[in-house]
Amino acid sequence: MDAVLEVKNIEKYYGNKGNLTKAIDQISFRVEQGEFVGIMGASGSGKTTLLNCISTIDKVSSGAIKVNNMDITTLKGNKLNQFRREELGFIFQDFNLLDTLTAYENIALALSIQKVNSKEIDKKVKSISNRLGIEQILNKYPYQMSGGQKQRVACARAIITEPKLILADEPTGALDSRSSRMLLESFNYLNGDMNATILMVTHDAFTASYAKRILFIKDGKIFNEIRRNEDDRKEFFNKIIDVVTLLGGELSDVI
Amino acid sequence: MLFKLSIKNMKKSIQDYAIYFLTLVLGVGIFYVFNSLDSQKAILELSESTKAIVDLLMTLLGGVSVFVSFILGFLIIYANNFLIKRRKREFGIYMTLGMGKGSISKILVTETLIIGVISLGVGLLLGVFASQFMSIFVAKMFEADMTAYTFAFSSKAAVKTIVYFGIMYLSVLLFNTITISRYKLIDLITAVKQNEKIKIKNPMIAVITFLISVCALGYAYYNVTVKYLDLNETKLMIMIVIGCVSTFLFFWSLSGFLLKMLQGNKRFYLKNLNMFVMRQVNSKINTTVFSMTVICLMLFVTIGVLSTGVSLNESFTENLKKSTPKDICIENMIDGEKQNDKTVKEILEENDFDMSLFLPDYVDATAYETEEITWKQTLSNVKEDLTKQFPMIRWDSKEFIVGISDYNKIARFYGIKTYDLKENEYMVLCTFKSMKEIRDKSLQNGMELRLNGKTYQAKYKECKDGYLNMSQSNTNMGIIVVPDEVIKNDKTLFKASNCFAADYNGTTDKEKAEIEKKVTNFFEQKKIKQCLIDTKLSLYESSRGLSAIVTFIAIYLGIIFLISSAALLALKELSESADNKERYEILRKIGTDQKMINRALFSQIGIFFLIPLLLAAVHSIFGIIFANKMMVTFGEASLLHSILITAAVIVVVYGGYFIATYIESKKIIQN
């Protein structure tokens, strides 16, 4: 299978010569088409920096990131924006929905900025919201929705452009457990039925247990990697807890 | 320490302050320029009579300045509120660090003082230099001699400016302190995260309100332009109130209406960031309806005042040319005293006046009165209208009667229209607008003239233009013209007035002025009191002064209103750009092109600047038509000219503020 994402020996430094901090230190991994990969780590481990570099919001200091065999670290200006809107879909912790727009409009916006024609937009928004079970709230504004609904709208916005890769940054961070579960079920649906490739950053073991493979990051390096294989989610969760314990931090964050 | 903090804050937020500061400087400068008019060299050299006009102008400008300082004071307080709002979080941090509200107030006081002192200084400097240019303009207005130019500085105006603006800044300090003392820490810390609650209106209500407001505006426009004759003071006030209220409703419902309309057009709505821009406008217009209304009305005043004020000067001169066809007109008011029923020419010759001062083609005409023809006879069929319009009317006022050939003689000399009458006909000349309407009605009611046992029919069912004394070219209340036989045969008629018109026997303005001096001296020396003298030169001088006053006040008010409204909009937009930063950040995160974002920002700010201007322009069209009908008839050419000048001023000032706002906002959202 083709690698959707290929990260090769990337490094990210902060600060100057005298006081250098390595946020990412020689990380390499691949994500295949149709995978659901979780990245775990304590705060300060470098996981958000990693995601920012992949999403081109931040730039790496060295190394290469290839999406669909294209090195995105060399992209600039409008090419970068074009890459971001055509190849990537984003789901953020705080939803990042526009509060002035209705759910329908928020989803449609992702296509509008790609200059898709209006009939197509309408069709696509309706079909995606149908699949994610949000047709009832299409005409509501973000402040009229619950957190879970907002995040599912954000999902719809991320997936509607049919991106190569969906990047999710702490998607359950602002949700209660019930909404989290519903959202993660949606992720499973996106990954399983729609064959979307998802890369999700989280420090929550429960959230991570929905992924098929998990990379653990500590001090800017990959510390461990586990695969779900044929385990059910419960067993996978326990395995994750084991690694987290080994990592030695933030147990309080796990439960 | 606090002082250092203030300085640092200001350096940091110099971008936020730039437009505010610029507006203050402009305000101070303009204030100084108009209050220092009288100290300018050009004005110091004026003749006594124009000096009196300048004194009047200064008194009026003083009054207007108080009004202007209220407007600017309001603007400054409003602007300050914006700036404070933006810094809520900063104050929150100070407070969590244990700084008291008193200290925060002190920081603000220091900042206000620094800005106040600097803006006053720079503004005064600007004003002093601008007033030098102003003096050229002034000299042109009053046709003064500009050869002896010196640099002028008015310490009186400078002190006045400092005192007025000092009071304004002090009131800002007071307001700021009150605002700060009201804040709660929790509000300050969470200030950034709190989005304004978006009130959602039922789109149908918006559409209906919009239609109502448009209809109401149309109704008001119709009443002040087409039906302006039916207007009285109360009705006019009602129309103004309707105009203001429907302007408010227009803005209240406009975005909802547009949104509804555009949402229907999916192809437009879902194209690029159109949807986002529309929603931005919609979300903000809800919270800015009131300021939009104020801005629109201020712009309306600006456009109306500037264009009519500028054209007033031109049309005055134009009208004057029309209404003063000859150099001098002397009228002997005989007023029934038989012993003094001489013509002007007879009086002049009797007193050994040198008739060669006049060109030999001079003419005169005599008007008669009779006890038989008073207003009671001619106007009692329109009694109600007349008493409504002129409550102090005297019904026994006698009508002026003139023979047709006498009238035609003087009319030909003036170059105005002449008429023919048959032996049983009469006609009425009247140029005074409100009187003409009443007389027209009376003529339509079939008014007949009964003189010496004979009845005369009106030749025309309306009054015609015409006058005997050229000073009455616009104020002739009514002259009845009859066939010459009437004058010859009717023994009840007696001479009431003799009007004499002539040109001076001179070619240059200087020669004419000398002759005029000789003529007026003659009448003074011989103590001939019953004669009224009107000359072209004196009419010119007095009306030029009057129009200069109106023009100055118009420009003063117009420019202050213009910069106030533009600054208000600019500051509001800037403070909102800061709030919108997050929204634009989201757009960027989902991969929108910078170009597209810039275009969206441009249209968003453009819409906010354009909408009040457009409505104000529509208001002004009808406002100018109204002013044109009610007060002075502007020549079309001069009106077009002044509208072009006004448009240019607005494009430069308002457009300048727009561009500055766009550039600043772009910086804010990109940071």
From TrEMBL, chain A:
<feature type="domain" description="ABC transporter">
    <location>
        <begin position="5"/>
        <end position="244"/>
    </location>
</feature>
<keyword id="KW-0547">Nucleotide-binding</keyword>
<keyword id="KW-0067">ATP-binding</keyword>
<dbReference type="InterPro" id="IPR027417">
    <property type="entry name" value="P-loop_NTPase"/>
</dbReference>
<dbReference type="GO" id="GO:0022857">
    <property type="term" value="F:transmembrane transporter activity"/>
</dbReference>
<comment type="similarity">
    <text>Belongs to the ABC transporter superfamily.</text>
</comment>
<dbReference type="GO" id="GO:0016887">
    <property type="term" value="F:ATP hydrolysis activity"/>
</dbReference>
<dbReference type="InterPro" id="IPR003439">
    <property type="entry name" value="ABC_transporter-like_ATP-bd"/>
</dbReference>
<dbReference type="GO" id="GO:0098796">
    <property type="term" value="C:membrane protein complex"/>
</dbReference>
<dbReference type="InterPro" id="IPR017911">
    <property type="entry name" value="MacB-like_ATP-bd"/>
</dbReference>
<dbReference type="Pfam" id="PF00005">
    <property type="entry name" value="ABC_tran"/>
</dbReference>
<dbReference type="GO" id="GO:0005524">
    <property type="term" value="F:ATP binding"/>
</dbReference>
<dbReference type="InterPro" id="IPR003593">
    <property type="entry name" value="AAA+_ATPase"/>
</dbReference>
<protein>
    <submittedName>
        <fullName>ABC transporter ATP-binding protein</fullName>
    </submittedName>
</protein>
<keyword id="KW-0813">Transport</keyword>
UniProtKB/TrEMBL annotation, chain B:
<feature type="transmembrane region" description="Helical">
    <location>
        <begin position="285"/>
        <end position="306"/>
    </location>
</feature>
<dbReference type="InterPro" id="IPR003838">
    <property type="entry name" value="ABC3_permease_C"/>
</dbReference>
<dbReference type="GO" id="GO:0005886">
    <property type="term" value="C:plasma membrane"/>
</dbReference>
<feature type="transmembrane region" description="Helical">
    <location>
        <begin position="113"/>
        <end position="142"/>
    </location>
</feature>
<feature type="transmembrane region" description="Helical">
    <location>
        <begin position="57"/>
        <end position="79"/>
    </location>
</feature>
<feature type="transmembrane region" description="Helical">
    <location>
        <begin position="639"/>
        <end position="663"/>
    </location>
</feature>
<keyword id="KW-0812">Transmembrane</keyword>
<comment type="similarity">
    <text>Belongs to the ABC-4 integral membrane protein family.</text>
</comment>
<feature type="transmembrane region" description="Helical">
    <location>
        <begin position="162"/>
        <end position="183"/>
    </location>
</feature>
<dbReference type="GO" id="GO:0055085">
    <property type="term" value="P:transmembrane transport"/>
</dbReference>
<feature type="transmembrane region" description="Helical">
    <location>
        <begin position="546"/>
        <end position="571"/>
    </location>
</feature>
<feature type="transmembrane region" description="Helical">
    <location>
        <begin position="236"/>
        <end position="259"/>
    </location>
</feature>
<dbReference type="InterPro" id="IPR027022">
    <property type="entry name" value="ABC_permease_BceB-typ"/>
</dbReference>
<keyword id="KW-1133">Transmembrane helix</keyword>
<feature type="transmembrane region" description="Helical">
    <location>
        <begin position="605"/>
        <end position="627"/>
    </location>
</feature>
<protein>
    <submittedName>
        <fullName>ABC transporter permease</fullName>
    </submittedName>
</protein>
<feature type="transmembrane region" description="Helical">
    <location>
        <begin position="204"/>
        <end position="224"/>
    </location>
</feature>
<feature type="transmembrane region" description="Helical">
    <location>
        <begin position="17"/>
        <end position="37"/>
    </location>
</feature>
<dbReference type="Pfam" id="PF02687">
    <property type="entry name" value="FtsX"/>
</dbReference>
<feature type="domain" description="ABC3 transporter permease C-terminal">
    <location>
        <begin position="64"/>
        <end position="175"/>
    </location>
</feature>
<keyword id="KW-0813">Transport</keyword>
<keyword id="KW-0472">Membrane</keyword>
